[in-house]
Design a protein that fits this description.
The structure is a single chain. The chain is built from six helices and nine strands, in the order E-E-E-H-E-H-H-E-E-H-E-E-H-E-H. Helix 3 (about 75-90) crosses helix 4. The chain has a five-stranded mixed sheet with strand order 1-2-4-3-5. Strands 6-7-8-9 form a four-stranded parallel sheet, sandwiched between helices. It is α/β, with parallel strands linked by helices. It is globular, with a radius of gyration of 16 Å.
């Protein structure tokens, strides 16, 4: 597998980007990170490698505020601009635009759902959709989802404080073509408590199988 580390320019700023590129691949999954951690966060590090080991090209990157070490996220508009800039870079590197699958964890997944309609890829993957801010179940971030004409795979912890099973199920049921995989007793990072009967390895295996089946 080839590992490519580079920087790209988007508008008037630069960001870092890392690709895991198998010798033979078809799909290219972008795994954008959440608001609280950059592309070197444990979740992104783990699945950037594990999914690539399945023969799927994986891409991770920093949003600009993470690149320059700021705490608070860029505007939603700038985050979308950054995400689309990554896709444009991949297109310029001759990755088939129809095989580029937007994805991400938490905020990165939400941004992926917001830009998905602007590209040709028919699929989308989200790890822990932030349906609402913790403790504010009335502030739903769902309206744009109903307009998506994409096949969507979502992994959600049953006890996710950003949208638990009971809260997100009615939303998923309204989408045109969505599959949600609930991780039993898991939180927003798809982690299960120590007392859980499901181990981290078992969670990883579930996620990898679902991703591979979804992209095949």
């Amino acid at each position: 597998m080839e590992r490519i580390e580079t920087k790209i320019t988007i508008a008037d700023y630069n960001i870092s980007l890392i690709l895991n590129k198998p010798r033979v691949f078809k799909e290219c999954l972008i795994i954008a990170n959440g608001a609280g951690g950059n592309m070197h966060s444990p979740f992104i590090l783990k699945f950037h490698k594990l999914i690539a080991d399945q023969g799927i090209m994986t891409v991770k990157f920093n949003f600009h505020y993470q690149e320059i070490g700021k705490k608070f996220p860029d505007s939603n508009k700038k985050c979308q601009e950054t995400y689309l800039g990554v896709i444009n870079y991949l297109d310029s590197e001759h990755v088939n635009i129809k095989n580029i699958v937007p994805g991400g964890k938490s905020m990165g997944g939400r941004i992926a759902t917001q830009i998905a309609g602007q590209i040709e890829s028919p699929k989308l993957i989200v790890f822990g959709y932030p349906l609402h801010p913790p403790g504010k179940p009335g502030q739903l971030r769902d309206q744009h989802l109903y307009e998506l004409d994409k096949k969507i795979l979502i992994f959600q912890g049953e006890n996710d404080s950003f949208g638990n099973r009971n809260e997100i199920t009615p939303v998923i049921n309204k989408l045109k073509d969505a599959r949600i995989v609930f991780i039993s007793n898991a939180d927003h990072s798809l982690k299960t408590p120590k007392k859980s009967l499901m181990t981290e390895q078992q969670v990883n295996e579930i996620i990898l199988k679902e991703v591979k089946d979804f992209l095949d």
